[in-house]
Design a protein that fits this description.
Length: about 90
């Protein structure tokens, strides 16, 4: 990404990712919007915030800890593979 587009990245990518990452509310609060509740599960920040919520406030509603750990491991491996592939393409050429 070019330096001129960093501001655009924050406004178009980071802001929705944070808002829909359940950082400000628990994932269970989206039960009135079932489609949105399922769509936000592709955001790794949901699992990070739910895991932190489970660790700090165990009595509050949160995703199951096993699901959080499994999803975080999946996203770690996925992003590591994609990152290494992109690095290989840039470094070899």
């Amino acid at each position: 990404m070019d330096q001129q587009h960093i501001g655009l990245m924050f406004s178009m990518v980071m802001t929705p990712m944070i808002f829909f990452g359940c950082a400000y509310y628990p994932w269970s609060a989206l039960n009135k919007f079932p489609i949105l509740q399922k769509v936000v599960l592709v955001n790794p920040l949901v699992y990070a915030s739910e895991g932190l919520r489970a660790a700090l406030v165990p009595k509050a509603s949160h995703l199951p800890v096993a699901a959080v750990i499994g999803a975080l491991l999946f996203f770690d491996v996925l992003l590591l593979v994609v990152g290494l592939r992109q690095f290989g393409k840039k470094a070899v050429t």
